[in-house]
């Protein structure tokens, strides 16, 4: 992508003769490029968020769990620990989701990344493009990175295409210009097509409120697997990732709802929701967790009213 920038900047003075057109191209290009680099930087250097310490085993529970050899008793120990935690999802056989390597009860939508060697909240996938694990803390940044990359390539392809037609229908003034324009257009279209499929797929995931992992393996609840278990409607699904402040949607700043540990569930009402029924058991003092409880309660009530 950086080579595209260099080639375009070198070719514009030769190809374009209108000063206004030159200025317009360079201005728009650099605005898109700044957002492209900004979102790329945030995707790379935003660390994946790990579960809170209350999901980790205490020393006493860890010792009791490791000394117990009977699987059914181990499952009972985990179930006792999970009663005070906001967890809905289960393993395929109905057990509490537990990470042996991190020694913690996994929050909903949390998975262990073997590359990062840690559990990641709302893990989507480990991306080699950014050499980072994409999850709750940086999923919005990754989506914006794809969007601005797509816009970046589209702008290059659109502005170069007419010169590509011109150079193949008339003799170019410079013998090397034809190759430069052809190369620039080819690379831009190649990235554009690839990004179009990837970005479209993630847009579909956001609209369904699913992660990449959940698209391949549906989350399991107490009532069984449900691929749409976290989907609460198109608008609310968007707000889960981008937040309620629409003016922040296009900027790579953190605006996602919640804290990554618990999420609204489509199939549960207020009376059935363990988060609300047992809130006094797991809620701790502090403005952050209190705010999260208010957010969770308000979301659950709105879902109940809609249904």
UniProtKB/TrEMBL annotation:
Enzyme class, broadest EC rank: transferase
Protein name per its UniProtKB record: Palmitoyltransferase
Name of a matching Pfam family: DHHC
Reaction catalyzed: L-cysteinyl-[protein] + hexadecanoyl-CoA = S-hexadecanoyl-L-cysteinyl-[protein] + CoA
Ranges for domain Palmitoyltransferase DHHC: 96-216
Organism: Python bivittatus
Subcellular location: Membrane
Bias-annotated ranges (Polar residues): 293-307
Topology with respect to the bilayer: Multi-pass membrane protein
Signal peptide per UniProt: 1-17
Region (Disordered): 281-307
EC number in record: 2.3.1.225
Keyword terms, alphabetized: Acyltransferase, Membrane, Signal, Transferase, Transmembrane, Transmembrane helix
């Amino acid at each position: 992508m950086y080579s595209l920038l260099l080639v375009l900047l070198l070719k514009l003075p030769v190809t374009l003769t209108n000063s206004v057109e030159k200025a317009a191209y360079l201005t728009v290009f650099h605005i898109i490029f700044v957002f492209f680099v900004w979102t790329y930087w945030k995707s790379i250097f935003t660390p994946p968020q790990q579960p809170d310490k209350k999901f980790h085993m205490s020393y006493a529970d860890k010792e009791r769990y490791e000394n117990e050899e009977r699987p059914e008793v181990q499952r009972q120990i985990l179930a006792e620990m999970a009663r005070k935690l906001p967890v809905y999802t289960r393993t395929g056989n109905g057990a509490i989701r537990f990470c042996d390597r991190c020694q913690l009860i996994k929050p909903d939508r949390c998975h262990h990344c073997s590359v990062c060697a840690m559990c990641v909240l709302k893990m989507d996938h480990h991306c080699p493009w950014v050499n980072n694990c994409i999850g709750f803390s940086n999923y919005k940044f990754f989506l914006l990175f794809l969007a601005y990359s797509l816009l970046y390539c589209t702008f290059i392809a659109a502005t170069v295409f007419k010169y590509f037609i011109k150079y193949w229908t008339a003799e170019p003034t410079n013998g090397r210009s034809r190759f430069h324009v052809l190369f620039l257009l080819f690379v831009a279209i190649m990235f554009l097509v690839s990004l179009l499929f990837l970005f479209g797929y993630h847009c579909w995931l956001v609209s369904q409120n699913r992660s990449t992992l959940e698209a391949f393996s549906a989350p399991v609840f107490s009532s069984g697997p449900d691929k749409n278990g976290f989907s609460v409607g198109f608008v609310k699904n968007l707000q889960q990732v981008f937040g309620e402040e629409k003016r922040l949607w296009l900027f790579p700043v953190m605006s996602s709802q919640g804290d990554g540990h618990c999420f609204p569930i489509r199939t549960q009402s207020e009376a059935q929701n363990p988060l609300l029924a047992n809130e006094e058991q797991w809620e701790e003092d502090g403005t952050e967790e209190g705010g999260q409880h208010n957010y969770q309660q308000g979301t659950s009530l709105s879902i109940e009213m809609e249904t």
